[in-house]
Design brief:
The chain has five helices and five strands, in the order βαβαβαβαβα. The protein has 140 residues and is an alpha/beta fold. The protein has a single domain, classed as 3-Layer(aba) Sandwich (Rossmann fold), CATH 3.40.50. The chain is globular.
């Protein structure tokens, strides 16, 4: 049985809804799953998991949330190579540039994503939730 962490930050609940669907998919795939809000996750925790799903909405000018998520991400990204990693999040403006930048940062850090990232414009719809369930299966 694989161990999966779902790590997210959510202001409006949109990314949290996506995280819940990722959890559902991972459990369906037989994984043991633990959920963390961004401020609770660190390098030591990352070492305990086979797969990690990271979720963060677009903030400001198409960036990751800067107070909690970005510092956590900066601390753990160097320890993620070789693990199953997936990304998800929501946005309310722009065109998803924050996710493209985040994916490029993963590539630069030697992180190979296990599946295509999922983004939702505002509240995730049924299609977005289904994609998140599949994301959970992919990270398991």
């Amino acid at each position: 049985m694989s161990k999966v962490a779902v790590v997210f930050w959510s202001q409006t609940g949109n990314t949290e809804s996506m995280a819940n669907a990722v959890v559902e998919g991972a459990k369906t795939a037989g994984a043991e799953v633990k959920v963390f809000v961004a401020g609770e996750f660190n390098v030591d925790a990352a070492a305990e998991y086979d797969g990690i799903a990271f979720g963060c909405p677009s903030m400001g000018v198409e960036v990751l949330e800067e107070a909690e998520f970005q510092p956590m991400w900066d601390a753990v990204k160097g320890s993620l190579a070789g693990k199953k990693i997936v990304l998800f999040g929501s946005y309310g403006w722009g065109d998803g540039e924050w996710m493209r930048n985040w994916e490029a940062e993963c590539k630069d850090a030697g992180i190979e994503l296990a599946a295509e990232s999922v983004i939702a414009n505002d509240a995730p719809g049924d299609s977005d939730i289904k994609k998140c369930v599949e994301l959970g299966k992919a990270v398991s």
